[in-house]
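In the previous lecture we treated proteins in isolation. Real proteins rarely work alone, and many bind small molecules. This record shows how such a complex is specified: first the sequence, then the SMILES for zinc ion.
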Amino acid sequence: MSQDINSNPHRRYNILTGEWVLVSPHRTKRPWQGKMEKVCLDEQPQYDETCYLCPGNTRSNGDVNPKYEKPYSFINDFPALLKDIPYEQFSDGLLKAESESGICKVVCFSPDHSLTLPLMSIEAITEVISLWQKEYKELGEIEGINHIQIFENKGDSMGCSNPHPHGQIWSQRSIPQEVVKKQVKLKTYWDKHKRSLLEDYVHQELELDQRVIIENEFFVALIPYWAIWPYETMILPKKKIAHLGELNETQKQSFAEIIKNTTIKLDNIFSISFPYSMGIHQAPTDGEEHQEWHFHMSFYPPLLRSATVKKFMVGYEMFADPQRDITAEQAADTIKSLSDIHYSLQKTNNY
Ligand SMILES: [Zn+2]
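The predicted 3D structure, ligand included, written as tokens:
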């Protein structure tokens, strides 16, 4: 492959969605000069009496959280989807709609208000994965729940107002369009080659070793070739695993370890608790076999050059294609060069 293409403006193809991203590396020809601005963050207490997610606290609808000690999930008090909505279709000329039903849950990762995934132990993250696994199985068995979206919004800039470590699960009747795009590509490849598209992709990435950040026994963390967000990161199993329900205990620990180490690296980029939207895409629960599926976890962090400079998807990106300046390889080099120890634990030595 010509290396020139990587230093000149080019478009990269996303094999998972069929979409393109415009890469403009000439805009950052100088070496990485990301400022290490220190952002003063309020230290969070381990327990906050005003937090509606802390153990034992009363939520806004009057329900009281149990004094949970392990990851805890409950039905969202203000859900975007409701369970018992009868299926209806509406069609009038060019206007089309259909009713949607589902169950939305909140998952508290830890009883400790002050923690985030990178600061949790591998054992504690494994328990979060076990709860995601349980929810995937239980929600997926419910008639009319065909897709389960696990996600986390972390940080004010991602619209998350509560710092308590938590994520959400929205499960629903229809399969969302981001997942449908990927499913089409995964299935086309599977039908043609009888191999997983992402297994072949991981194999190529490990061989090239240009975008891989971390690798352990079962998982790889990398900057996808087609990444849109500056430090977009993907964690995926090396061998095809269709959904979280298939993970055994050893694989769950391996997954927890790479989640911890990847999020430590992300926090260390600007020495802040790195904001992101994280989501897991996995096989739908619509009763089909889905041999083509290869689950993966994606982090979409909005920050660009410093803790205070955010990337905006506006203008050309709203009307044409997403665009990035830092290449995926530069982002991977930056992240690889960072310490494996969380910045907050490094600092204590300096006091
Ligand atoms: Zn809390």
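Summary for your notes: The first strand starts at residue 10 and ends at 13. Residues 48, 51, 53-54, 113, 164 surround zinc ion (CB under 6 Å).
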